[in-house]
Structures are given as C-alpha cells and as structure tokens.
Amino acid sequence: MHPELIKLEKIFNPSILTKIDDPLLVQYQIELWMKRDDLLHPVISGNKWRKLKYIFDHVLSLGTDTVISMGGAYSNHLHALAYAGKVLGLKTIGLVRGEQPETLTPTLQDMKKWGMELKFVSRAEYRQLRHYKCWHAPHQLPADLRHTHHPWRYLPGLKPRQYWLPEGGAQTLALKGVAELVAEIGIPYDTLCVPCGTGTTLAGIIEAVPEHVSVLGFAALKNAGFLTAEVAAMLSQSRNNWQINLDYHFGGFAKTNTELNAFIEDFELKTTIPLEPVYTGKMMYAIYDLIKKHYFRPGERIIAVHTGGLQGKRGFS
C-alpha cells in the first residue's frame, strides 16, 4: 500500500464490537452486536474509509492528481473524499446533485474548506452520470466507451491525470476494503446486517463472509428493487446467502418520521451509540422490528455494521 495511506491509517481508531444490552433482546433470545466503524475516524468514518482505501491506493499508484465523484448536498461519500484528498495532496471535484443553494449546507462548506471544487448539476444530468459506473461489462456501456478497459476512465471528457469514481465509491476496489471489516470480526455469528445505498458495502460483505452466514441489507431508499441486480453484478460469483429488505426506507432516501426519530433517541439513551436517520438508524429500527416479528431464530447472534456518516445528521437538526 502507498506510504501516504499507511501513514494516514496509523492515526485511525479500532473498530470495536459492542454488545447491545437490552431486555427486549433477552426476551426474544437474540444476541445483537454492533461493528463500530463509526469510531474509525472523526471524518473518514465507517464504510467511507473501507471503500476509499484501496481506490486511493490505485489513484496514487497511477500518478493521477484529481479524483472526480458525485453525491448530494449532504453526501457522506463526497465529504470523506474531500477530506482524504486534502490529507493525501490530491485535487477533488464533487458533482453535486441539484441547483446550488443560496447557503451551502454544512457538509458542502466542509468540502469547500478542504479544497474540493463543487460543480452543481441538474437532477437529469445526475441521473445520466449514474450510467458511468465502474461495474459495467463493456457491452453495457455506451458505444463510445466500449473500447476502454480502464473503468476509472469511463466518464466522458475526463482529462489526463483525472480519476472517475462513481456515486458512493461504487468501484471494484471498494470491495477489498470492505472485506477487511469482515476479517476483523473475531467471534462466530449467524447474520450480518448492513444498510444499503449503492449496495457496494453489501457486495463487499457478501464476498467476504463464510458461506453459512446470512447477510441482510436494508435499503435506505424507496423503490430500491433494482439494487438486488446491481449487487449481484458486483459479485465475483453467485451467492445465495443474502437478500435486501426494502421495507424500512421511511418514505425515501433521507426521509424520516417521528417514529424513527423516537427510536433513534431511545437507542442512543440506552446504549450511548450515536445513530443517524439516513442509514444506520433505519437499519437498527428494522432489526428491532424484525426481532419482534420473530424473523430471527431464538439463539441467533446478529452483527450490525455501523457505517458511520454521522456528519449527515446535521441535515436533520
């Protein structure tokens, strides 16, 4: 790995396993643990670092000097990318969904402070950008891109020494970093749960867990049935030990309601573990609800991955 990345990772905190103590879990004979990736780093926390680690190694090995990616006005991915780019001495460009607001969100302000160039694109343009993913087989790409074998070059108009990284870090190298999360789990377990945006973290987990472990993803967005095919396309081989639950989006991406907010507040009071309502908060609500519905067998040990992104909570204050 590149020396600058080794230097950066040395300041990271360990991602511990925390057992959740709750009378409800005792009642239903379920053992629930949380993989605390939110503790890794104050900014590059959770699955953001997991996905970016080997992508940045690739960027630095190629000698490219600029990383271009995309996300929303509260994007955890762009936020982490901007900070890591600053630390590693790389230029970053963020293609931000929607018109430029009169006042930048706290997330965008951070990104600008860390040197990221912000370019606001219409929602129609943003949807088009999603076609330029690094997963596509050549026949799935637009005709003018089929000649290239370098996925980081897929974005039309990319200049020399620029590196294209799709939404959420959805790139093959991201799976390698996510696999390290799984390798750190030192206890046997039956089910591993993770929230889903692009499905990249879920794919990395599926690739890395033992075949007898069930993997359960929870979609953070509405109408996310397409994710199953997209995750399957990321996998190096077919696996039948995973599924994506689509029932706990609470109205859509970054949507919430009083019930979810109350659950998060209660969970934080009981455990002192902070949650946000976009990803991990929804997943934890779903796990508790499924426990009460007897979805899990008595005696199961479940590990839930805290994917960090707590900075996004500022959008709900």
Question: What does the secondary structure layout of this molecule look like, with pairings?
Answer:
Layout: H1 3-9, E1 17-19, H2 23-27, E2 31-36, H3 47-62, E3 66-71, H4 76-88, E4 91-97, H5 106-113, E5 117-121, H6 123-129, E6 162-164, H7 172-183, E7 191-196, H8 200-208, E8 214-219, H9 226-234, E9 242-245, H10 258-271, H11 280-292, E10 301-306
Parallel strand pairs: 2-10, 3-4, 3-6, 4-5, 7-8, 7-10, 8-9
Antiparallel strand pairs: 1-2
What descriptive keywords fit this protein?
alpha/beta, Rossmann fold, 2 domains, 6-stranded mixed sheet, 4-stranded parallel sheet, 16% strand
Structural summary, described in words:
- The chain has 317 residues and is an alpha/beta fold.
- The protein has 2 domains: 3-45 and 173-316, 3-Layer(aba) Sandwich (Rossmann fold); 47-169, Rossmann fold (3-Layer(aba) Sandwich), CATH 3.40.50.1100.
- The chain contains 11 helices and 10 strands.
- It has helices at residues 3-9, 23-27, 47-62, 76-88, 106-113, 123-129, 172-183, 200-208, 226-234, 258-271, 280-292, and strands at 17-19, 31-36, 66-71, 91-97, 117-121, 162-164, 191-196, 214-219, 242-245, 301-306.
- A 6-stranded mixed sheet has the order 1-2-10-7-8-9. Strands 5-4-3-6 form a 4-stranded parallel sheet.
- Strand 4, helix 5 and strand 5 form a beta-alpha-beta unit.
- Helix 3 (47-62) packs across helix 7 (172-183), helix 4 packs parallel to helix 5 and helix 7 (172-183) packs across helix 8.
